[in-house]
Structure formats: structure tokens, C-alpha cells
Amino acid sequence: MSGTFSEAEVLGGIEKGLLIGGRFRAAAGGRTFAVENPATGESLCEVADGSAEDARDALAAASAAQSSWAATAPRERSEILRRAYDLLVERTEEIAALITLEMGKSLAESRAEVAYGAEFFRWYSEEAVRIQGDFAVEPGGSGRIVLMRQPVGPSLLITPWNVPLAMPTRKIGPAIAAGCTMILKPAEQTPLTALLLASVLGEAGLPDGVLNVVTTSDPGAVAEPLMHDDRLRKLSFTGSTDVGRKLIASSADKVLKTSMELGGNAPFIVCADADIDAAVDGAMIAKMRNIGEACIAANRFYVHADVAEEFTSRLTARMSKMVVGRGIDEGVEVGPLIDADQRDKVATLVDDAVGRGARVHTGGAVPSGPGYFYPPTVLSEVPSSARMVEEEIFGPVAAISPFTDEQEVLRSANATRAGLVSYVFTRDTGRAIRFAEGLETGMVGLNRGFVSNPAAPFGGMKQSGLGREGGRAGIEEYLELKYVAVDVDR
Ligand code: NAP
């Protein structure tokens, strides 16, 4: 294995039990499940397979810790986050190797994820001491309006496999800052990074019971009983729109405060007046970051007919040179997809588009050999009837279609249930503003292929979600606004 740490060293240092009340322990009945390396298809190790009973224990621990945790000084919560940030940065190489082993992305991308994920702790360490209220004189003059913000309470955090460190830190950072206790249920495919993160937070001084982690192969069995328990007050979910929709329905029972970061279907629009260098650079990031397995991955490229050929050939030249291989090998740029299902889904979407008339410029076929690899692929002339125009590809496939009219491309870009992010490349300021205003997405990348920033509100419109993560808005998701009416005349 490349990098500073051997596989045995990385895996050997990780607790593989459930974290409940500050102690790692076996699941009820001693059940475990295997974590697979997507580059080889082989098992890395076994972790505890939590059940409904374990989930209830985790909620009991979170609930018991809530009032004392809420009463801690904001400065104390801030310093725990800051120490955890320092520890994550110090341990970048080891954590990056772990992310790569269980998720597949290249070491370079995993290192970038550690930097990005840790940054949520630094940002929210700074926000923890800036939770403010408000004070106003009633318009009638006799009373006072006092507003305060208080932690919402025990929160269930459910995260996906594609960004195994930063999706948890994007939730845990603001929850700690706000004074909420938590039960984290990481994805079945990437539980190890979450367990390592929990150990780091313990080392940083997070009190017992504030963060509990339940790994499981049966997410419904763990989540459902919690959502029907009066002690839980919040659900924060990142994952597919289909699962998110089901969880919103379940959360209605106890009227849980919910945050939903769901699927995307990002349009990437290149206008005739765009800086093509910047557009190709932006496309490489928006498409190839995380092997295309990102909710903010560019899914549909709309390129003005005047520049479509140049853009396609330059993107093809870059994509076809990318080094595909085991992410753990230094120099590899494109690792395997997460599993056989995901790889087969990408292959099916490509075959469907080609069957409907799309042209393949590079890639387009599953290679032989172990692991779930799919090559960087560029398709042009993708018709609007192709399945990949409406479905998230979640793989390294750029689907290009030409356009000629600004209004027409805006309509195409918006013709989806998703509304997470869009990308626009143009040198014309007026056109840039018209697109930014007209695109039905929670985020717009203007002349850049990357929008994620811990200091900015990340989130979607339409069926891409509810609420925001990151920035000042992110902490509001973990706070209740309380209004106190005060009479000052008596
Ligand atoms: P997923 O299948 O929806 O799973 C996400 C999480 O939900 C996993 O922890 C999963 O557990 C859990 N889960 C599945 N069924 C559940 C149930 N019935 N009750 C409770 N939890 C349940 O999504 P994924 O395939 O892991 O991730 C890919 C999707 O996430 C894509 O659509 C992507 O766009 C979206 N995503 C969105 C954002 C964003 O910020 N908007 C960020 C990243 C990813 P198991 O692992 O055990 O199945």
C-alpha cells in the first residue's frame, strides 16, 4: 500500500464497536457486518451491526447527556471543536488512507476531504461563541420582545458513503456548537471513518454521551424506533431523495425538526462567450471530483453550439488522460465506484444514452478485472430522452448536449425535480445574473466548478432538500428560537 501507513496500521487503530455513552461496545447479540474495499471487492474488517435495541440505548445516552451538555459554556464547546480540528489535520495521512480504503477515491481526494471536513469544526468552533438573541420594544411601547436561541435537543444524523468524513462533520460541527447531543448512523459501506472521527472527538474532550455512533446493516431498524420516540427532537439526513422522502414521512409522527440534503442533477452551462479554459477546468472539478459520486457533480452539460466541439474535444483530451486505479496507489486520479450496483447503474445509463443516439468520445465500457472501476467517459449529442438527463449518474460520465438559445437552456436546466446546484460559464455580467436568478437551485457556481465551502450555506431547492448546512445558516438547524414576552409597566 502507498502512503505513510500500511493497511494493517490504519485498520488496527480503529474501534469497531458501537459508541454508546462514551464507551465502544459490541452490538446486542454480538452481530457484525463486513466492510468492503471497492478497489478489490475484498473485506477489510468487521464492525458491530447495531439493532433497534442498540439504537434505543444510544438515544437513552444522548437524552441523559442533553441538559448538562446544553449548559456547558459556549467557549468550552468551541475549544473541543478547535482541538478536534487540530487533531484531524494532524492525522490527515492516516484518515485519508482510511477514507480511500473503504470508499475508493484517490489519496489526493481523500486528503482534500480531510481538509474540507475538518474545516467544519474550525468554522463552528468560531460560531459556537456567537449564538445570539434579540431584544425589541413592542410597537405599542409597553412590552418587550426578547428572543433567545436554545439547542433543539437529541439529534439523529444519517450520512451517506460518498463523503464519509465531511458529511458527518458538516452535521456534528454545528450540533456541538449549538449544544445538541447526537446519534450518528453512518452509511453501511463507510462506517470506519465515522468511528475514527468519534475517537478523535473523544480525544478532543467531548463528554460521554454527547456523540453516540450506531453502525448497522439495517438502517430502517435503527432509525424508525428513534423517530417514533419522544426523546428525539431532530433528524438531519444526507442521502438519496427517495430515502429522504420516506424519512420526512416518518418524522411527521413526532413533528421532528428535519434537515434534508438530498440528490442533485446539476446542469453545467457553457455559453458561447465563456472562457473555455476556465470551463474545461471547472468541468474537470464539477464532474470528476469524487469520481463523479457527488450530489453536486455536473450531471448534464449544456454547451453552446458555437463552442460545443472545442469544449468536447478539450474535455475528452483531459478525461482520457486520467490515471485510473486503486485509490491507495499514489498518482492515481480515478478510483473505483463504491460497489457493483453503482458501477452497473452507470454502465446501464451510458448504454441507454448511446442506444438513443449519444456519441462516445472516450470511455464507455466496463473494464475487466477486480474492483468496481468505470473509466472517465465523455458523451456528446445526448438526447433529452436519455435516462441520465433526469437520473443522477453518480459516476465519471460527462453527458454533453448542444444549445443555441438562453431561454431554451434555462428551461432545460430547470426541467428536473432536483434543485441542488448549477454551474454557469459566461463572461457577460448581465447574462451571469440572469442565469443566477433564473436557475432553480440552492447554489450556483459562476465561472467555477466548485461551490462547497464550510463558511457558506450548502443546500437545495425543490426535491433536493430542506434547510442548509455550513455557514451561519447551518447552526440554525440545531437551534430553537424562543420568544419571551415581557411586560415592563408593572
Ligand atoms: P441513501 O441510500 O439514501 O443512503 C444514505 C443514508 O441513509 C445511509 O446511511 C443509508 O444507510 C441510510 N438509509 C437508507 N435507507 C434508510 C432507511 N429506510 N431509514 C434510515 N436510513 C436509511 O444514499 P446513498 O446511496 O448512500 O448516497 C447517495 C445519495 O446521497 C445521492 O442521491 C446523493 O446525491 C445524495 N447526497 C446528497 C448530498 C447533499 O448534501 N445534498 C451529499 C451527499 C450525497 P445504508 O448505508 O445502510 O443503506
Give the number of helices.
Answer: 15
Could you tell me the strand content as a percent range? 15-25%
Second CATH tier, the architecture of the largest domain: 3-Layer(aba) Sandwich
Bound small molecules, which ones? NADP nicotinamide-adenine-dinucleotide phosphate
Spatial order of strands in the largest sheet = 14-15-16-13-12-17-18
Compute the gyration radius: what is it? 23 Å
As residue ranges, the low-confidence spans are none
Number of domains: 2
Straight-line distance between termini: 75 Å
Number of strands: 20
Strand and helix layout:
Layout: H1 7-12, E1 18-20, E2 23-25, E3 32-37, E4 42-48, H2 52-70, H3 74-90, H4 92-103, H5 107-127, E5 134-137, E6 143-151, E7 155-158, H6 166-178, E8 182-185, H7 191-203, E9 211-213, H8 219-227, E10 234-238, H9 241-251, E11 257-261, E12 266-270, H10 276-288, E13 298-304, H11 305-320, H12 340-355, E14 359-362, E15 377-380, E16 397-403, H13 406-414, E17 421-425, H14 429-438, E18 443-446, E19 465-466, H15 471-476, E20 479-487
Parallel strand pairs: 7-8, 7-10, 8-9, 10-11, 12-13, 12-17, 13-16, 15-16, 17-18
Antiparallel strand pairs: 1-2, 3-4, 5-6, 6-20, 11-19, 14-15
The structure holds NADP nicotinamide-adenine-dinucleotide phosphate.
NADP nicotinamide-adenine-dinucleotide phosphate (NAP) binds next to helix 8 and helix 9.
